[in-house]
Amino acid sequence: MSEELYRLEGVSYVYGEQAALNNVTFSVSRGESLAILGANGSGKSTLLKLLNALIYPTGGSISFMGAVMSGDGFTGNILKCFRERVGSVFSEPDVQLFCPTVFDEVAFGPLQLGLEPHEAAERASELLAMLGISGLKHRAPYTLSTGEKKKVAIASVLAVNPDVLLLDEPTNGLDPRTQVWLFELIESLKGLKKTCIMSTHDLSLVEDLAERALVIDEAHALAADGTSREILMNKDLLLAANIIHEHTHRHGDVVHIHSHGPFAVHDEHD
Ligand SMILES: Nc1ncnc2c1ncn2[C@@H]1O[C@H](COP(=O)(O)OP(=O)(O)OP(=O)(O)O)[C@@H](O)[C@H]1O
Ligand SMILES: [Mg+2]
């Protein structure tokens, strides 16, 4: 039987008065690759922050490997173990880059894990080379372009070799070669039984990168949980959740309804 990593039961989150997630229940097993889909503001980033223990539910509960994630109990060694196992790349890379140079940034995690400085340096160099950003190693992260920052954020997360990767809009702002590199990386992580949970607006990626998909609707509730294929084929669901759109226009007497999504639907009505 597959090992359960996360269990969410009736999870809600409100920022002050602003609801962001509403009564969400699902589990994630080790080795799964999961895409989170939803319109702007539906709650994807909030869900990833909850899975990353950056915030805790305001309703319901989340556990990671049986340990309840809450502000009270999820501290000390439990939180340290969690941070070693779970790495995340935020959609805005600025918030996770804080070292004076790119090299220090990528070596920081391995040093925190207790690697000798020369081992941490070796690992950082390998990662920088893998991402094709060795040339940036002496630069201050805040001087980089958005895509460069994202590459540094990805390199620094991979440097600690986490079991679970949480990726918020991973391909946003990346050039085509880096996107392909990232797909291949996610594929190879799946082969290594790593768990990968990502949010994306790019439906063309979903079936390649994730076996399973969740849909969060605009009321911040879980509208669907199924295989990526099932979800992508469910046009009504994607339309209702504002993940694809349909516009109607008239050619003479014929009204065309076009859906914009992974499939080319072209219904005609009198
Ligand atoms: N720090 C915050 N303070 C108040 N409200 C917030 C905060 N962060 C997010 N929200 C609100 O919570 C809801 C969910 O936001 P979230 O960022 O999780 O959406 P998202 O699905 O990631 O959207 P996007 O596709 O635009 O990234 C939105 O209504 C948003 O305005
Ligand atoms: Mg978001």
Describe, in plain words, how this protein is organized in 3D.
The chain has 270 residues and is an alpha/beta fold. The protein has a single domain, classed as Rossmann fold, CATH 3.40.50. The protein has helices at 44-51, 76-85, 102-112, 117-130, 146-158, 176-191, 203-209, 228-233, 235-240; strands spanning 4-15, 18-29, 33-38, 59-64, 67-68, 86-89, 164-168, 195-199, 212-216, 222-227, 245-251, 254-260, 266-269. It has a six-stranded mixed β-sheet with strand order 6-7-8-3-9-10, with helices on both faces. Strands 2-1-4-5 form a four-stranded antiparallel β-sheet, with helices on one face. The site of adenosine-5'-triphosphate (ATP) has 11 residues, from strand 2 and helix 1.
Defining traits:
270 residues; alpha/beta; 6-stranded mixed β-sheet; 4-stranded antiparallel β-sheet; 9 helices; 13 strands; globular; disordered C terminus; binds magnesium ion
Short description, anyone?
With 270 residues, the protein is of the alpha/beta class.
